[in-house]
Design brief:
By secondary structure, this protein is mostly beta strands. Helix content is about 5%, strand content about 25%. It contains 4 helices and 21 strands. It has helices at about 145-150, 265-270, 365, 370-375, and strands at about 40, 60, 65-70, 85-90, 105-110, 125-130, 155-160, 180-185, 200-210, 215-225, 230-235, 245-250, 255-260, 305, 310-315, 330, 335-345, 350, 385, 395-400, 415-420. A hairpin with a 4-residue loop joins strand 17 and strand 18. The two termini are about 35 Å apart.
């Protein structure tokens, strides 16, 4: 699939792989996914290829009959301009009903977001997502179990709501579009990366339910990430290929993840199902306020963080014999990491600040190995989706029918969101 990426794009292998053929993949191309290319699978918690007769999962496959992108989402500019949400309409919602029985279910309804942040238990949210599986050649033959755990199972990470702003070391003030909200790992021990895009974050409601049966609201979907700026890199001998050293990445970030704020689009989502916003419902003021400056981007005079010494210096483009005149996404044939690198003033490999030339925040949805329908399902072409948690497998889905009023929201829109929980 890396043959589909044009020369110069992250993850391309047109000029290195014989699989691209004599024409170097000139006739291969990426295209937007069609509804026929995709499925929504609820109840899935592993990407491992296992026959259903052996699987512990109780999957429900929903058929997509229509994909509705927000009309103001600009595919050419990506999520940096906002309106990064889509709705998947399904034709067989009744297939979910048996799995929603409170006594036996493994698919639990999530409440709609509340307008007042004080109605949440705290500032924390649970981010559930897939990752873009790392190629197996880096893994020792004895580490199959660890590989499956790291790459094939859904991950749940505790993130905290934070202001949308660049990390202090960058001395930058890049743009965060209106109707977005930001979350990050307070300990800066993890990073949002490829395969995560379009995945949901939920927050626990205050004084709703019991300790045994807590209630959570869906508050947004991951729109973009500006890079794993605290990543450390080590190089060691391959366990499988003698004489070859391989780089290993410990992905960490002080950059926040930028999420589409679900509150800002509830009225639009409701319209897709023939509903209107309830009387008295009003969007938060933050839905119309962007943060940062659109012009603080593509700078040649920008900060860098040394991978070797963790010292803040400057990126140096086109010096020390380098032919790179912009930051490059860390990648090899068919795979990319959400890490932007340059060489600094001491010719050490370094991580670029958000405003450096070449840094593209939409790379989190376009840089990974997944392409065509798979990448599109998690947001690369269609934008993060109300209905897809990555690689076309639903971590979040809409029930396409009228439901009874629940106690989740006093202002009720007439539809319900569900998310998958791992047994």
């Amino acid at each position: 699939m890396c043959c589909c990426r044009k020369l110069g794009e992250p993850g391309t292998c047109r000029d290195t792989s014989s699989y691209c053929g004599p024409n170097k993949g000139e006739n291969a191309e990426l295209r937007p996914a069609l509804k026929e290319d995709l499925q929504i699978v609820c109840g899935e918690f592993s990407l491992e290829l296992t026959p259903e007769e052996f699987s512990q999962e109780e999957e429900v496959v929903l058929k997509i009959e229509k994909i509705t992108n927000h009309p103001r989402y600009d595919e050419s500019k990506g999520p940096i301009e906002g309106f990064d949400i889509s709705v998947y309409h399904v034709s067989n919602p009744q297939a979910l009903v048996p799995q929603l029985d409170p006594k036996t279910r493994n698919i639990v309804p999530a409440c709609l977001p509340v307008l007042d942040d004080n109605e949440y238990y705290n500032e924390n949210g649970i981010f559930a997502a897939w990752v873009d599986p790392e190629p197996t050649f880096k893994t020792a033959l004895t580490n199959l179990a660890k590989y499956i755990f790291d790459n094939m199972l859904t991950k749940e990470t505790l993130l905290t709501k934070v202001p949308c702003s660049d990390p202090g070391w960058m001395a930058s003030d890049t743009y965060y579009p209106h109707a977005t909200t930001c979350y990050k790992d307070d300990k800066e021990e993890s990073c949002l990366t490829f395969g995560n895009s379009g995945s949901p974050i939920v927050r626990r409601l205050n004084k709703r339910g019991t300790e045994e049966y807590q209630r959570f609201s869906w508050v947004g979907t991951l729109s973009m990430s500006k890079g794993c700026d605290q990543t450390t890199v080590s190089r060691r001998a391959s366990a499988r290929y003698p004489g070859i050293d391989i780089e290993f990445f410990n992905l960490k970030s002080s950059n926040p993840g930028v999420f589409t704020d679900a509150r800002c689009y509830l009225d639009w989502v409701a319209e897709q199902y023939g509903y209107k916003a309830p009387y008295g419902w009003k969007k938060p003021r933050s839905c119309s306020i962007p943060i940062g400056g659109k012009n603080d981007r593509n700078k040649t005079d920008c900060k860098s963080l040394s991978v070797k010494s963790q010292q803040v210096r400057q990126c140096q483009f086109g010096k020390f014999g380098s032919t790179d005149f912009e930051c490059k996404l860390e990648e090899f044939e068919g795979y990319s990491y959400n890490v932007w690198r340059c060489n600094d003033t001491k010719n050490e490999p370094a991580i670029c600040a958000n405003n450096c030339r070449g840094v593209d925040p939409k790379a989190v949805i376009a840089g990974g190995i997944a392409v065509i329908a798979a990448t599109s399902a998690s947001g690369s072409v269609l934008g993060p989706v109300l209905g897809a948690g990555g690689i076309g497998i639903a971590g979040l889905s809409t029930k396409y029918e009228t439901t009874e009023k629940t106690s989740c929201n006093s202002l009720y829109f007439g539809f319900v969101i569900t998310f998958t929980v791992q047994p």
